[in-house]
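From the pipeline queue, job 12 of 40. The input is one protein chain; the requested action is below.

Action: predict structure.
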Amino acid sequence: MVNTDSATTIPPSTDRGIGRRISPTAAFWVVGLTYLVVMASSAAPSPLYPVYQGEWGFSATTLTVVFAVYAVALLVALLTVGSLSDHVGRKPILISALVLLVVSLFLFIVADGVPGLIAARVVQGLAAGTATGALSAAVIDLQPSESAGPLINSVAPSIGLASGALGAGLLVQLAPAPTVLVYALLIGGVVLLAAALMLVPETSAMRTVESRRHLAKLLLPRAAFPTGARVPFLMMVPALVATWSLGGFHLSLGPSIIKSLFGIDNHIVGGLEIFALFFSGAVAAACVRTRPPRIVMILGALVLAAGVATSLVSITIASVPLYFLGSVIAGAGWGSTFLGAMRTLGVLVPADERGSVFATTFVISYLAFSVPAVIGGFAVHTFGLQPSAVVYGSFVIVLALLSSAGFTAASRRERPGFSEVTVSGT
């Protein structure tokens, strides 16, 4: 039977040195805030893309390439260093990731063309990928209750993406030198969080690195699945692909839809649309956090499909209010479905596997985040924005319905692995 203790105890042997200065509860919130800021930084460039396009004159296809290199770099980091926090500790990985993030933000400030922008996104992707697995694992390690960790793991990405996009949009529209100010503010926040992380207790079981050969083996690209729970894990894949492909589309092409299809040349509106999607996801996740993960994923996927369908209708009839309504509904489905997945993982995964399994989860998520968006960008160049958006949205709807149907069927069959998750979730 899976262990369902309400909170994970920090091993005494790993809570040493400077880490003793703050309590596990305070550390939990520091790590959660770090997660939010890392995700905010990844969304912050989105409202600036039209500014860069105006200054440097690149196409929508180039824009999706800029978006994609971030995801590729993030995936490389997840596949190589994603599990290292299980061996060398969460803190060294997190602080190294934040140093990389500061470097990437500085590269954004000094970028003077597409190559500079791509370089900044690559380093930013490496930073986010290095941090993601360790952050997700540390949140579960430090959680004060059974529901707190999965909730933070699901709402931190959505609130971070929402606040990063909206904050950058406001600065682009209202503040001077937004291509500098946005990143300067983020650098200040990241530096403060790095200092706070120095005070966080180490929570990793820290399986030893036996030799250089062992370290080289750990850095080989690989995927890890939770021991004895592959069936419920694999059943989550369509839900992960549906949710994250929708997020990738909105972050890469959402501002172009607002400007080109609806004729609104206002950066605040572009950022607000992304904010509506992800913030509604955070609110929905908070509202359903105590419900069984099976029910949350089934209903969340249906809500996501309904929201995307609403957005497609709005694009067809050129209705801005309906488009925002669709984003809010789809975001609620996004947040609910992802929360259900994270709660399931929180129950299934042993402490010494969390870094690697969460890294694998985000590899799947970010592949869905990037690959469909890149394909959509090339489709826009060939077929136009509106037809591409309709086909892309239809793809997301099909995946969401498949996910919901799959979990419903599994519920009826009451597979052993799935039943354990359901019982634990209640």
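Job complete. Confidence is low (pLDDT under 50) at residues 1-19, 416-426.
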